[in-house]
Amino acid sequence: MMNKNCECGRVNPYGTEVCGSCGKPLADPDSNRLLNMRYEGAARRSQIYSTSIIDKIWNFFSSVKVGIGIIIVTIIASSLGTIFPQEMFMPPGETPEVYYEEEYGGLGQVYYALGLHNMYGSWWYMLLIAALGTSIIIASIDRFFPLYKALKSQRVTRHKSFMKRQRIFGTSRVEDVDHTFQAAQDILKKKRYNIREENGHILAEKNRWARWGPYVNHIGLIIFLIGASLRFFPGMYVDENMWVREGETEVVPGTSGDYYVENQGFTYEEFDEDDEIFADGMEASAALQFEETFRTDAVLYRPEGPLGVDQELEEVDRHPIEVNDAFHFDDYTLYQVDYKLDELKELSFEVEDTETDEVVGSFTVDLNDPDDTYALDNGEDVRINSYFPNFYMNDENMPTTENDVPDNPAFIFEMANPDTEALDHTFLGIQANYNVSPDQEENRYEFSLDGFDTNDLTGLTVRKDNTIPYLSVGGAIFLIGLVQGSYWPHRRIWLQRKDGEVWLAAHTNKHWAPLKKDIDAITKETGITAPRDQIDDEYEKGEDKDNS
């Protein structure tokens, strides 16, 4: 790979299409094709080196086609993650493998088996994001520095072939070249062009900074991707749901045990049906509920003293949490998002001796934290053999539970039978009372439901997002680059003295009509012949050829 020496004396790297000094075309110098001015014909690293493994990796990621391919794959993968709700949006207490199968059937099972239920935190999705970021960075570096060097070192005096192979080009003869150039220079200055002179030639340039718009855009996108990736680093992003029963204190998820919240009371109120303001609307939507208020009287605690079972909690703050009034502390926020009224809290049972028809005792089971054994008045003990908070029979006709929420509690109690010295087993649930002793003999003791107690639950969401500054800055820079590169074209007009004529050539990276208006202003005031748009000429030639 040899360097290319230009007749002007500049040594250009291998792969250079246009001399960085005089602009002479080095690739196809005898061709009449218009020059590819996308990167000023400068050599890019991906065009120069291709031997080592680093070169091959660089060349792979610098390809625009590869970048577009990664974007398409990422978009497809992201869309797959929206077919069904992600695991974080499942109802609290649900098991993913059970939830997806019950809610979405066979497709849900496949969705879970493929790991799409937690896709955005998966290693392969993060690898896609990393590949996209790598492609953006390498492609930008591969193009930015050659373009920057080419524009920085461009001379005013340009080679004849450079001038002829611009899209807008023309020659004309004028009586007073100096006066013509001065008049053109004054007009271009009024139009805010930067003027450079060399050897009697003129280069008028405007909005070069707009060429960096795509690269500013890429910088913003990279910062945005970094911010999105940081969401999967511990401590940077938290979005968790929690349920807290009245009177209970629970650790705030995502805080590493640094904060606890107590639900001192939950308030639920509906709009008054007799209120004239809301009466018409409520009557029209009789099937709907109209919550006026659901509020959690929350108290925030932090552990005090050394870690241990008897660790005390110190009150930090208290705040009533409502839908539009969140509880802010440290970098966290607690939002009121849901509630559950009248959840079963306790069940009371009576135990009757079937031989004497006397009640031998009673006991109360805390459904959220049941004891293993309960003592009766007659000195006997009742033991909980099995507990099913949300009971159902599985496909094998065996009792099991959907989750740990006591929506349909059921128990298998066991007691010692003084007659047989064996253990009696009783299955007891809502509207269910069966003898399940292995020998199926009649149980000595009979259990019955004696009462129940309920409480309310509050559903809270805890959020912490330290990635917002990255996302905001990245998004802002992205938009700046988008505007910078979209609305301001980089315009250049060359006026040269060659062979006793005035040569005019012009180029812009977009929006050719305004550039043509600027040239028209010059030609009207100076007598320079209007240059041709060589693309229009080629189009007209093609039409003439077709017509013939």
TrEMBL record:
One of its GO terms (cellular component) is membrane. The chain crosses the membrane at residues 66-84, 123-145, 215-233. Residues 526-548 are annotated as: Disordered. The keyword Transmembrane helix applies. One of its GO terms (biological process) is cytochrome complex assembly. It is found in: Membrane. Residues 64-520 form the ResB-like domain. Signal peptide: none annotated. Keywords: Cytochrome c-type biogenesis, Membrane, Transmembrane, Transmembrane helix. It is a multi-pass membrane protein. PANTHER family: CYTOCHROME C BIOGENESIS PROTEIN CCS1, CHLOROPLASTIC. This is Cytochrome c biogenesis protein.
